Amino acid sequence: MQMRALGISSDHVLSAQVVLANGQTLTASPSSNRDLFWPSRGGGGSTYGILTEFTLKLTRLPRSAMVAMQWNETDTRYEVAKRFLDWAPRQPKEFTSQINVYKSKVQVLGWYLGGTQQQLQRLVNDSGLLELGHPQSQISGNCNTDNSRIFGIVTNECLPDDKVDSSILKCCPRGFCSIRQLPTTHLR
User: Fold this and answer.
1) Which GO terms fall under molecular function for this chain's record (predicted)?
2) pTM, rounded to two decimals
């Protein structure tokens, strides 16, 4: 959720190792094999080679503020979504947010990168969202990076640094798994 302020992941690629169809391995960067650098950052549809390694520019994220709002009323979904879409894009680039509209609820999650709880509270108050229906709202401040990574997935509030368990984000999904064989049917 930092992309409004910091860009997307591919903006932070410094170089990539690329294996070409002939088996040759090259380093693509702004100064070496530039013709492969752009596609290796996602601009080429994966047709130039196999990427085996990336070198990334890392950024230390400042302590930040987070907001989670939820409306459990179906009759406010449209008004909440409309207000959010009018308000959110005009906020400072350090504030990134998303709206999730479900059949029976609406949820807004936001992260104010480097912002305080008080700054975020002012943004939310000025949005007019809290005036619609009966929202549940949680605004937390002084959130560390691991808090931001689990926010909205595991918890909707910042936990003390020593209580954050971000292990859910450190697992690798199984790439392939067997699927039970289904009977073959023939179309006539």
Assistant:
1) flavin adenine dinucleotide binding; oxidoreductase activity
2) 0.75
d(Cα 65, Cα 123) in Å, to the nearest integer? 11
Q: Token digits for 111?
A: 């992260």
SS3 43: helix
CB within 8 A of 160, min separation 6: which ones? none
Give dist(CA 50, CA 19) in Å, integer: 5
The DSSP letter of residue 184 is P
- 113: CB partners within 8 A, 6+ apart: 2, 5, 6, 61, 62, 64, 94, 95, 96
Q: What CATH architecture does domain 64-163 belong to?
A: 2-Layer Sandwich (3.30)
Task: Give the pair of three-digit tokens for residue 113.
Answer: 């990168």
Indicate the CATH number of 3-56 among 3.30.565.10, 3.30.465.10, 3.40.50.2020, 3.40.50.720. 3.30.465.10
